[in-house]
Amino acid sequence: MAAGQIVGETLELLREHLVAGVTGAELDRLAEQHIRERGAQPSFKGYRDYPATVCIEIDDVVVHGIPNQKPLQRGQLVGIDLGAYYNGYHGDACFSAVVGGADEAQQKLLDATQGSLMAGIGQARAGNKLKEISKAIQRYAEARGYQVVRELVGHGIGEQLHEPPQVPNFFNAGEFRDYELVLAVGMTLAIEPMVNGGTHQVRVDSDGWTVRTADGQPSAHFEHTIAITESEPLILTLAEGARFVSDG
Ligand code: MF3
Ligand code: CO
Question: Which domains does the chain have, with CATH numbers?
């Protein structure tokens, strides 16, 4: 068992429970229970005083929504982001889905976001520069009419939840030194595109955590922790255990 697999399993469990009427607080409790049963610890709880195991990202919430007692409703686009710490390492992943099933517009946004994650992972190869990941994500999302969030980025991950390098989901020459980093075997990255239906701009609620789209349009978020290998990138945060990209 590895941290990433525990994250993947827990997200699958939460996916089954993502139905109308369930609350974010209930999903949070399920997640924490499952993680602790596996002998692992939630990565987010207590991180910079974050109060929960998961982040719940409803509709226009981009990231860092704090679980609460409000029942989820059919039609809401919900992202669930989760980290676990086990045997000295963190895993971090997120999926988005619509309660009760997506309409056409929601499905397009979900597909564009998940596709952009996979496009980014596809560039996570030894010898590539990190900016190839950023460019692939941005290209995929923008080709489908969406914008990627710029204020928040993916990250290195390992013994700490957030490690260098920063992994932006867009390319703007000179903005990040890490764009020019040459990827090497053994690096582990959390790649996490946040893709907005409208403007890429975001604002933060007065709780200091909840990040929303500036225009109130929906946002989707997918994330995997991956490892760079001699060949294909290895996705670590899957319920069945780590798999090379080419193994599907
Ligand atoms: N996946 C997000 C990240 O990597 C979630 C962090 S929430 C926090 O930044 F509470 F841990 F900050
Ligand atoms: Co992350």
Answer: 2-244 (3.90.230.10)
